[in-house]
Amino acid sequence: MAAEESYPDGLKYHPEHDWARIEGDEATVGITWFAQDALGELVHFEAPEPGTSVAKDTSYGEVESVKAVSDVIAPLSGEILEVNQKAVEAPETVNEDPYGEGWLLRIKLSDPAEVDALLDLEAYKQHVADS
Amino acid sequence: MKLIYEQSQPGRRASTLPRYDLPAVEVPAELRREEPPRLPEVSEPELVRHFTALSTRNFGIDTGFYPLGSCTMKHNPRVNERVVALPGFKDLHPHQDEESAQGALELMWRLQEILKEVSGLDACSLQPAAGSQGELTGLMLMRAYFADRGEDERDTIITADTAHGTNPASVTMAGYKLEKVATDARGNLDLDDLRSKVNVRTAGLMLTNPSTLGLFDEHIVEVAAIFHEAGSLLYYDGANLNAVCGISRPGDMGFDIVHINLHKTFSQPHGGGGPGGGPIVVRKSLEPFLPVPAVVREGDAFRLDSDRPKSIGKVRGFTGPFGVFVRSYAYIRAYGPALREMSETAVLNANYMLARLREAYELPYDRLCMHEFVLSARNLKREHGITALDVAKRLMDYDYHPPTVYFPLVVPEALMIEPTETEPKERLDAFCDAMLTIAREAAESPELLREAPVNRPVRRLDEVKAAKRAIVTFGFEEHPDLSGEVGEGRQLEVQKGA
Amino acid sequence: MSQLSLTESDRDEMLATIGVASVDELFRDITEAVRFRGDLGLEPALSEPELVRHLEELAAKNVDTTKELSFLGAGIYDHYVPAVVDAVLQRGEFLTAYTPYQPEMSQGVLQAIFEYQTAICELTGMDVSNASGYDGTTVAADACLVARDVTGRKKVVLAETLNPQVRQVVKTYAVGFGLEVVEVPHEGGTTDPEAVRRAAEGAAAVLFQQPNFFGCLEPAPDLAAAANDAGALAVAHVDPVSLGVLEAPGNYGCALAIGEGQGAGNYQSYAGPHYGFLAAKSEYIRRLPGRIIGETTDLNGDRGYVLTLQTREQHIRREKATSNMTTNQTLLALAGLVHLSWLGPQGLREVGETCMSLAGYAQERLGLPAAFPGRPTFKEFAVRVPGSAREAIAKARAEGVHPGYALGRDYEGMDDVLLVAVTEKRTPADIDRLAEALRSGDSA
At B496, is the pLDDT very low, low, confident or very high (cuts 50, 70, 90)? Predict the structure, then answer.
């Protein structure tokens, strides 16, 4: 069962439909409701390895539904501390709870100033409306 | 319905084989088969029943109307099946020398000449086994051509955003980079966008004309000029050739390399997914690079010529799928110059259906179509929450194979309809009636569409489950209980990609 | 024209509905500069009886295996195709259907391919098979691409004893794949695992053939081990008809098994259409090219079949697809399934045993020196003839017997080597004739 449409407060957003929860010099990232809705029920998350690094605005992996495949874009740069194994083993978790159990990566930020370039809730909601 | 493995009983067999009183020859122990393969064990009567039952659960052109856009599902003449089974063709070994295969070589040479005439180009190879392979071969030719001229900086191929997925996939397999050009509001290539993307790194264009929207590009002459002025080549994806045989030739449009889908335009039966044939026809300047061996004529004799130092090599075994050539050759010989009527009728049939359906569905491009047209079910989605997929599934309950859906990507909720020329008017009318009924059902009783199909051997299938579980073979030991938890062993580990 | 059914009045009604005056007007978007006027330069139409006669005349010019006793092999074989194959392939619901994009309309084809995938996995000892490749040559190119993407390496190693056309096709594809191709020469008719181990340093894959092009049995488990030691994928190109008596590649360390399916269920037909097969261990499933059919359930919980993992394929992944393949060889693969179902495990083993015993008898009756002494063989073997193999062939054919393939066409220093193929369609009396035909050449 996919979640109801929502874009929580307290998160930062990226135009490629990713979110980031900032916790000091670390962040948890995932894809937004809009992204999971466009793809349909996810069947696969091609995840990177912990210990590797991600760069803002570039792809760190892929998510697939039956009919579509999409790059997942890193909203921020850093080193991957943890990959959500639940998203790997049960990708539909991302549809059910995209901001909670369906998180994708936890990273240690290499350049915290990048957070300023992300969209806040209102700006992202506007971006979704324009899509 | 049971799988053939579920009907097997140990010790049953359908085959009888000769045995001779000769000394057995043993396979060395380290190479010997330990466990026999678990092939079916059935008697002949049950074998025939099994495959007959399977066939009744399948829909072909022989069953009914099959308007799968871009696939050209025309009737497959039965005489072609008779001639392909002649022993002189069916039992001919490909390593037979030329003198002993003159009939085969002559047939191939004549088919090459026909395809040259239809394309308006100079040289032909029948070797590629399918349209996609023809595309890849054409791109290999481009690479060889430019390498021969020392133009190594050309590393990019331009495709239309309406292109069939094979085009970009072929570009990658050929080692080229991909650039896309947009389609304008009339359904033509956007010339401004095109001009901005053609430069010294452009090796060529891949295009089908008419496009996957079923529309003939009104500026094809300018498009060709843009590429030729830049020193690039043009590749024609022949998937939609059924619209223009004898009406417009790709060579005249400005294309330098053409592939033809023998299973689309020239009636090789589709066989449930194949075989096909993807011969390529090229301008003289590209002839030296064609795959070997070439089939040539010397006086009254026909020969295989492998003395082609600039050839790209081989893309398939021998000279290509010969049985496919026999059928296509026979098909074209039955038409003669009246091949044009094939295309005229295909285009007439499509336009008639378009005229009947354009009010009930959205028409993205308001033009006459060619042999196929694209409608959008977006109005049904907006007003009733009904999608193109629902329309497709409901058509099944009316005994039609659905059209192509969700392609091309530039049209949301796309329905791509290609009737072909072999359909009589009554069939077209009946299908249009069904489409109009379905549009009404979408408004009045949408649950009929969402529950569809109800008249097929199965209801809608869970493709998500299939992708996650990846059960791709029969589980001899432990066939899983699919209504509950999946048993161990049969489900492949697909979550960890390689 | 019998394929078209529109009458004049149909046409008039339709044109009126469309709102144009003539059929010609439907093509008004075609610029006159590219509009073809007049008739295509094609020969006049033939009626059905005339067409059949014309094709019969062409067919009669070919020397097929009903006209000549044939021991010609070298990759394509005159194995027996049972009548049930013809019967099944004539079912219009199979013959005239296309790719099963709409599974509810295509459960027949989908289930048949699922059964085919199972059969190929059983033969090869693998976990997943695709729904077919074009032929035995292109599946080798497919395997090289899988290996490149799995290992990230840019070199492939081919045994010289792999069919020459297979090697040629791999080299043609390698250019676009960015792959270096290295060949390992044979030694005495087979391939040395040590040579493979050396060549396979930094390679993505090692491809070898079992039985090989010379008909010899390779030390296949050792070749696979050599590949694996070097971190390369071991890819065996195998004869499906041999897999009742020879071990499955999946059981001796291979990552992929490929081959030409023709010998299992297809007529020779001057090389096609046939089917290539490609099967792999489960960890490679996401990299495989081609269609894959999976099992699932429908809304009612009933079992059904669908195209699956389509996100690998061109219609979804486009430029990042595992292959551009769309149309494949389904009908020929179906023939293969029917053939293997007809044989069953007993029948397949018997075919293998019969081929081997007949080949053994032939080697004894011919009394010609083996070209590769000491190498065990399957259904084909290479002998040295006095003089040239081509001359021996010509002389035997004058007696109505085609004795085999001249290996000198592809290999240096083998102008006197004749490759003789013996299938279960040959009899001891046929072999006696072969021996006569070759000996009569002798005394000339």
Answer: very low
**How many residues are there in chain C?**
444
| 3-state secondary structure at position B156 | strand
Which region, left, alpha or beta, applies to residue C413 given φ > 0 means left and ψ of -120 to 50 means alpha? left
Q: Which two tokens stand for residue B316?
A: 């398939």
Subunit contact A88:B406, Cβ cutoff 8 A? no
Q: What pLDDT, in 10s, does the model give residues C95-117?
A: 999 999 999 999 999 999 999 99
List, for residues C378-387, the tens digit of each pLDDT value. 999 999 999 9
Question: What is the pTM (predicted TM-score) of this model?
Answer: 0.95
d(CA B115, CA B279): 9
- Nearest chain B residue to A86, by CA: B495
For residues C116 and C264, the answer to whether their CB atoms sit within 8 Å is no
Q: Tell me how far apart the alpha carbons of residues C152 and C204 are, in angstroms, rounded to a whole number.
A: 7
- Cα distance between residue C217 and residue B191, in whole Å: 60
* pLDDT value, residue C442: 52
Instruction: Give dist(CA C274, CA C170) in Å, integer.
Output: 18
**Measured CA distances, C293 to B38, B148, B232, C92, C101 (Å):** 19, 43, 40, 21, 11
Give me the DSSP letters along C358-410: HHHHHHHHH-PPBSSTT--BSSEEEEEPSS-HHHHHHHHHHTTEE--EEGGGT
Q: What share of chain C is helix, strand, coil (3-state, %, to 5)?
A: 45, 15, 40
Chain A positions in Cβ-Cβ contact with residue B463 (cut-off 8 Å) = 66
Q: Quick check: C316 and A68 CB within 8 A?
A: yes
Alpha helix stretches (DSSP H) within A18-118:
33-39, 85-89, 92-96
- Label the pairing between strands B156-160 and B123-125: unpaired
Please determine, for residue B261, whether its predicted confidence score (pLDDT) is greater than 60.
yes
Side by side, the strands of the sheet bearing A12-14 are A12-14, A18-23, A26-31, A105-109, A78-83, A53-54
Chains with at least 3 CB pairs less than 8 angstroms from chain A? B, C
Q: What is the pLDDT of residues C102-160, one digit of tens each?
A: 999 999 999 999 999 999 999 999 999 999 999 999 999 999 999 999 999 999 999 99
Classify residue C301 by its DSSP letter.
S
**Taking Cα atoms as reference points, which of A66, B274, B158, A27 lies closest to residue C316?**
A66
> What spatial distance separates the first Cα and last Cα of chain A, rounded to whole Å?
24
